[in-house]
């Protein structure tokens, strides 16, 4: 029998996703909110707070719970742990319905607390999507604001610090990959900080919406139970009391438009971060940045001299994965057939995966940016080898001199094109060329004083915009 046909011994249970295995330490904070356990804890929170809301208003013959009983109820989600996780897993195996299992958990705990009298108000007049929409709004809001956004802000802060430190570090720009008007490394990093700050502000301003209006969004069961209650006002106050927004006009589901908007913004941030990763990778390949060796680390398995830019390559790949998942979430969640279909249920279970890959990229970018240092001599040598980039300055000054009546030159652009296009021109050749120009003495002096390293305009000052 061929060796390859022998079945391998099965492993002990292993995580299928690298986010839950190799990279768990970097993204584990998201699991507090976006795991199945995190979602179920939020569902218990919504069920408990709805119970407290109904009894606070003495509906259906109830009386407000004492503060002690309210705190004991709230402990059901505050102390949610492995016992509840196991209980729900066993119950869902029977119910084949995750939200119903949560309802049974709350009822079971009410009995244990001696609060059976209010048990029938558990999940009162709710469709599963009332509980789910509130739970997803809570978990996504907390994951984004407490975990993802702080990590993005760390990258932005790092870029701002580097931009300020390197504000005067002149370097040759490359447009279309070719030598172009010089800039500074600080200004180029400030561009990324500025772009990311705009998107971060948009994410911070995001809505996190829930509905709580029953089976098809009409409060029908609520009104059947008590037509004298202002159910839209009551449920709005309840949802807003949880710290999320209220959507009053829905089908059976909250329409998920806020999620589409949010994931598109996070995907936008990912695109900018991807651009940052590829640019830094390119600067490393040009020698503009040197990588700081990490003690004991292997750069290449066979070439000892190398330090591979793995932080930026890892970030690049994870941003592509995250972007693909976020795009799929946006595309899927924007649509629901008629009043309800279940495509969103499966899709939303991957929110944590999408944000996990993004968070892993942010972690790698933060670490990568801390492991590089500017090689200014390389930048200086590159500038000194490309004096032809001053052609732009020369032809622009000549045009100004012509407009001022101090020059008889015609077509200065063509004049400089003939001198520099496809050719390397050094400092002596440019000096001779400028000295021979028909322009005023002051303009000539300004041009002769220019070097590629000083032809950076307002680059250093522009760093302050970030």
TrEMBL record:
The keyword Lyase applies. One of its GO terms (molecular function) is N6-(1,2-dicarboxyethyl)AMP AMP-lyase (fumarate-forming) activity. Residues 336-456 form the Adenylosuccinate lyase PurB C-terminal domain. Pathway: Purine metabolism; AMP biosynthesis via de novo pathway; AMP from IMP: step 2/2; Purine metabolism; IMP biosynthesis via de novo pathway; 5-amino-1-(5-phospho-D-ribosyl)imidazole-4-carboxamide from 5-amino-1-(5-phospho-D-ribosyl)imidazole-4-carboxylate: step 2/2. The keyword Nucleotide-binding does not apply. It holds the Pfam family Lyase_1. Coiled coil: none annotated. InterPro entries: Fumarase/histidase_N, Fumarate_lyase_CS, Fumarate_lyase_fam, Fumarate_lyase_N, L-Aspartase-like, PurB_bact, PurB_C. It comes from the Bacteria. Residues 22-315 form the Fumarate lyase N-terminal domain. Keywords: Lyase, Purine biosynthesis. GO terms for biological process: IMP biosynthetic process. Catalyzes two reactions in de novo purine nucleotide biosynthesis. Catalyzes the breakdown of 5-aminoimidazole- (N-succinylocarboxamide) ribotide (SAICAR or 2-[5-amino-1-(5-phospho-beta-D-ribosyl)imidazole-4-carboxamido]succinate) to 5-aminoimidazole-4-carboxamide ribotide (AICAR or 5-amino-1-(5-phospho-beta-D-ribosyl)imidazole-4-carboxamide) and fumarate, and of adenylosuccinate (ADS or N(6)-(1,2-dicarboxyethyl)-AMP) to adenosine monophosphate (AMP) and fumarate. This is Adenylosuccinate lyase.
